[in-house]
Structures
1.
Amino acid sequence: MQSTHLLLEEPIRMASILEPSKPSFFPAMTKIVGTLGPKSRSVEVISACLNAGMSVARFDFSWGDIEYHQETLDNLKAAIKSTKKLCAVMLDTVGPELQVVNKSEKAISLEANAYVVLTPDQEKEASSELLPINFTNLSKAVKPGDTIFIGQYLFTGSETTSVWLEVFELKGDDVVCIIKNSATLAGSLFTLHISQIHIDLPTLTEADKSVISTWAVRNKIDFLSLSYTRHAEDVRQAREFLSKLGDLSQTQIFAKIENIEGLTHFDEILQEADGIILSRGNLGIDLPPEKVFLFQKAAVYKCNMAGKPAVVTRVVDSMTDNLRPTRAEATDVANAILDGSDAILLGAETLRGLYPVETISIVGRICYEAEKVFNQDLYFKKTVKYVGEPMSHLESIASSAVRAAIKVKASVIICFTSSGRAARLIAKYRPTMPVLSVVIPRLKTNQLKWSFTGAFEARQSLIVRGLFPMLADPRHPAESTSATNESVLKVALDHGKASGLIKSHDRVVVCQKVGDASVVKIIELED
Ligand SMILES: Nc1ncnc2c1ncn2[C@@H]1O[C@H](COP(=O)(O)OP(=O)(O)O)[C@@H](O)[C@H]1O
Ligand SMILES: C=C(OP(=O)(O)O)C(=O)O
Ligand SMILES: [K+]
Ligand SMILES: [Mg+2]
């Protein structure tokens, strides 16, 4: 795949930086999650997003109702059908999010050094002197001197609509604040972030539960993005809730780490969750700026070693209004990939940004370039050392498959999988070539009817760096005899060739079971 192999740890010839990268059928191994909203909900735009490389669509229920999101999702389904690109669905909860209630939607201007009162009385009109909020216990949670941030929904950090307040005094349920910077709150929704304060609200609110038991069940969502996860118990409770909702027992839970409380309990949360979202939007204001990178590196490393996907947010905020990212943003995206992230999550950029499609494609291109210089060798050794010995049989097979594929310069690894576990383990070792994960459906029953597994498993790999799923025909029996393996393998190879992933005379590494034995084999194609 890589003819000119550059490694950052070695001296790179400056001129080679200018050499254009070969066009590739898979723009990047890194996955892109796009938040769908006003600027990205028509079949046309969603189709363009899919073609540009979006493989997970996020539906953020902080804004918009069930009907709105259903319409968008129906459009997504139409786009998937017409583009023939797979896309997973992620529901993002509201959680304990504090919001300013601005019923009239009129712009509110705030002057530096003036006072403004935050009140739980939602009947009041929002004004320059008074901001009604959706939380009754604010005056019990904060004390004079605390910092409160108010920003536009999906604030980018670069707009002039965000304001910092300092708590001055508490008056009953009201909180009197000094305005630290002049700003005009414009937009339909403002979220409130209070630095390093525990908000006494459940992580999964009643409103979230109602959306999950209706919209999410109806649409069999692949991922639940659990906003403001603060403890491992939050994930356990969400899992317990999903387990009673039929198909949603298969939904994966991605814990969003958005504040210091979540950061403090990171290790336990990672054990319970299926993946982590590094929510740098909120966390970036909860943490001192000089500490944000350290959290990112530590968290991504832990996710990598656990073999669980790490998703990084808020990367190209300025592309919400501009066609090009800032230099710092472009470099930051690449660094997230070099750190080991699986996916990049776009928020405002795709939801209300002017250039959703261009943003996806630029981010994809940066990821692609970063992957090329990712030091896989170093990463592989680090991971093997971390896992230690004895290794589980499956992990040993998976890591060997990656090593073999690199040694023989295979163009692709084909992994048979039912639960998806084997494919994820291969991805954990960050192969430099794509992994075609051939999901073999299994027949299952709930005592009422029979159905096939596989669809969730296939879509859930769309957030894992390097995995490209393919759902095998359920008529192929799942028992792993050589004969059935051969026929499924042929279909996979044909699929790989049709998508341009595999060419004649390529070498391919295959990871499958024959009888009870897991095998890694290397095949060389003829034509
Ligand atoms: N239907 C199948 N045919 C052949 N090999 C398979 C099949 N399903 C899984 N494998 C192989 O079996 C091993 C376990 O894979 P995994 O997906 O973890 O299996 P399971 O779904 O049984 O937990 C891997 O080496 C994988 O490539
Ligand atoms: C993605 C984030 O949260 P949300 O978009 O849900 O506010 C974030 O804080 O980075
Ligand atoms: K949210
Ligand atoms: Mg957030």
Note: The radius of gyration is 24 Å.
2.
Amino acid sequence: MPPKAIGPYRVLETLGSGGAGTVYRALDRRSNDEVALKLLSTGPSLDDRAARRLVREFETLADLSHPNVVKVFEAGVHEGWPYLAMELIEGLTLRHYLDVSLGGGPPTPPPRGPLSIRRTEDDDFGSVDGPDEDPDDDSAVDDDDGTFGLNAFAEEAPSEDLASFHGGAGDDSDSDDVPVDPRREPARKASPTARPGATPPRMADLNRPERMGRLKDALLQVCEALAYIHGHGLVHRDLKPSNIMVDDDRQVRLMDFGLAKFLADDAGITADGKLVGTYRYMAPEQILGEPLDGRSDLYSLGVILYELMSGRPPFDAKTPHELWRQVLETEAPPLLALNLHGDPQLARVAHRLIRKEPDDRFQTAEEVYEALSE
Ligand SMILES: Nc1ncnc2c1ncn2[C@@H]1O[C@H](COP(=O)(O)OP(=O)(O)OP(=O)(O)O)[C@@H](O)[C@H]1O
């Protein structure tokens, strides 16, 4: 049962839950405006000092204003748990917006005018209707036939407990002060990722011009948002498809910005030893607990692009340990080997974004924007 009220907000319904808490549709009783209210269920225990820090950090965010960054209104504390009031987005997360496994994705929005962002004249966003595909054809075939597995679009649970990778309860090793050490053997598998009942889409579905147009359009807007926050000296730290929402007008909003930083220290580790972020999208330097900058977000953007183009993440493993090994040591399979008819320019952009060394990636979101526009 959701709470009836949180601070000055009346809770109307539950919108969804994630690793860090639950999001409600709520009414601000002071203004009668509807907001999205995120009640965090993880994080520091909120003594007075932590509560002051929460309010201070989110005051900074509330000052930010960009059409592609979700507006944060205020932060508060409800029965010891922090909450954030933010702009209510009527739309879908990027994953669902581009999900072809549910019978072709959401209804095609009507064509709209140019976005408020820069765009080159020859951008090709494809026809709105796309080529004829049989929506009933859900034949499950394997990767060799050009489709991908059931768990291709799923995400892992974030904030896995590092202690669980250190040999379990009997392990008295230095788990408290070791941020992330991929050489350690994990004690258990990563959370299950398959989405029950999902039908593997075909590569032809992934490559539909209408879908590729939506993907490119959304990513250009993500670049705008990243350029803005990086320009303010901030790093998102947990960029992934579920933290990107697309509203009914196809306007993208970057979500959960600032949360990872609030929940963790500079190395991305929480007070109780958890790594904040979502493994699949983490840059090598983030896994290693090294200092992050905007290029770490660009790595995450590359994973998103690779995954949404090929139907599988660049590094796919059953355990965090194996995933970290791959991210640190191996090269991702060529995207165009997985998706023979994928867009070569977008594939090049994805591969450059997921380079291991930040210096070898695109250096700014503006550069990525330009490359996506070519
Ligand atoms: N501002 C918002 N407006 C409308 N719906 C929202 C908003 N923020 C979140 N939601 C909805 O609530 C769901 C849960 O969001 P939440 O941020 O808790 O989870 P997540 O991003 O999927 O995972 P995590 O917190 O682990 O990163 C989202 O998938 C989205 O559908």
Note: The pocket of adenosine-5'-triphosphate is lined by residues 15-21, 23, 36, 70, 86-89, 93, 158, 242-243, 255-256 (CB under 6 Å).
